[in-house]
Amino acid sequence: MDSGGQNIYVAQVASHLARLGYNVDVFTRRDAPNLPEVLDWQPRVRVVHVPAGPAQYVRKEDLLPLMDDFCRYVRDFARARGYMAAHANFFMSALAAMELKRSLGVPFVVTFHALGRVRRLHQSEADQFPAERMEIEDAAIAQADAIIAECPQDEEDLTRLYNADRRKVCVIPCGFDKAEFWPIARPFARRALGLDTRERILLNIGRLVPRKGVDNAIRALGRLAREHRIAARLLVVGGNSDLPCPVLTPEIGRLKDIATEEGVADRVMFTGRRSREFLKLYYSAADVFVTTPWYEPFGITPLESMACGTPVAGADVGGIRYSVADGFTGHLVPPKDPDRLAASLARMCADADHRKELGRNAIDRVHEQFTWTKVTRSIDVLYQAVAANTERHVA
Fold it and tell me: In this structure, how many other beta carbons lie within 10 angstroms of the beta carbon of residue 274?
């Protein structure tokens, strides 16, 4: 599994469901020739590599033509398993869940993680998913036994743009892993990463694509220096290779041009992607975590940052609005507004006591509301309700 938010969600929910006594099969398309059909990943959790299309990487925007084979395989595999329920993640997995319900009577829950109509609103022609996506989402929403919205905005989008029945929609957020993210002393974290212990450090971690708004953070960095007389360094962690490469990650080239235009080329450091075990060092090393996407169905990185005691400067959108308490665990600003972001960063950079208070509050908030244990218990309750309702209808 890669480290994208949806894959983290599936891995964590599966692992925590197993701890609750579930036996979990995770179906994913085989994308390498040497993968076993069934992998015993953890106790009570198996990963089933479905032979659908070439055993190599295929962009998710190009996967839809392979889904007929994927659905047939999942249906045939499931015939002898007697699954209590299926949990589809993303619209293409919902096709398999709908087939299981049609053929075998298996009820299903769906978490979309992103909605096609929302994506089109923000990206228009840059959205390369096929137009059929919205039709599939409509069908899945109509047929699902329950729909998990990851934040109130997600629930609103489901009901307003897709006419989802509110009685079927349950708001359950994403989470963070307490065994993976915790505060590390900032000087130690910086020395471990070879960073200056004295300078102000801002951090962004995530996928490097335009909609994630890293350009907004770079423009704010320029304004922070020019208008607020505050020098800081921005670390940008992510990309398609371990070393930052504009060929493999085209967005890096665009962002470097913006940094040059803003006069901060020497203050923006692209690290390339990093393994998850190193991320807590980066979160702990930073003074502020910056994430200002155009839209965000949820966003796991703000939780991880807060778990490490680092306040968040985040876009006032979607799941970030839900997880980051404005003025309490960080600051919320409009997306695509580098002036407002720079002003917020200036306040946090200039006031160490304020940053520390935000960081302490952040740790308390995520431990109270956003652990994977709490998230998965809510999902367990939803599964039990779906299964009980199905049994009543069958009886």
Answer: 17
Backbone angles phi, psi at 149, to 5 degrees: -95, 140
What is the per-residue pLDDT for 219? 98
Measured CA to CA, the distance from residue 94 to residue 73 in angstroms comes to: 14
| Model pLDDT, residue 392 | 60
Q: Checking phi first, is residue 229 left (phi over 0); if not, alpha (psi -120 to 50) or beta?
A: left
Query: In Å, what is the CA distance from 183 to each residue of 76, 192, 323, 348?
Result: 46, 14, 18, 18
Q: Which residue positions in the chain have pLDDT lower than 70? A: 1-3, 391-395
What is the pTM assigned to this prediction?
A: 0.92
Six-digit token string for 148 = 């998990």
Q: How far is CA 389 from the centre of its chain?
A: 30
HEC per residue, the chain: CCCCHHHHHHHHHHHHHHHCCCCEEEEEECCCCCCCCEEEEECCEEEEEECCCCCCCCCHHHCHHHHHHHHHHHHHHHCCCCCCCEEEECHHHHHHHHHHHHHHCCCEEEECCCCHHHHHHHHHHHCCCCCHHHHHHHHHHHHCCEEEECCHHHHHHHHHHHCCCHHHEEECCCCECCCCCCCCCHHHHHHHHCCCCCCEEEEEECCCCHHHCHHHHHHHHHHHHHHHCCCEEEEEECCCCCCCCCCCCHHHHHHHHHHHHCCCHHHEEEEECCCHHHHHHHHHHCCEEEECCCCCCCCCHHHHHHHCCCCEEEECCHHHHHHCCECCCEEEECCCCHHHHHHHHHHHHHCHHHHHHHHHHHHHHHHHHCEHHHHHHHHHHHHHHHHHHHHHHHC
**pLDDT score of 391:** 66
The pair phi, psi for residue 22, each rounded to 5°, is: -75, 150
Query: What is the predicted pLDDT for the residue at 125?
Result: 72
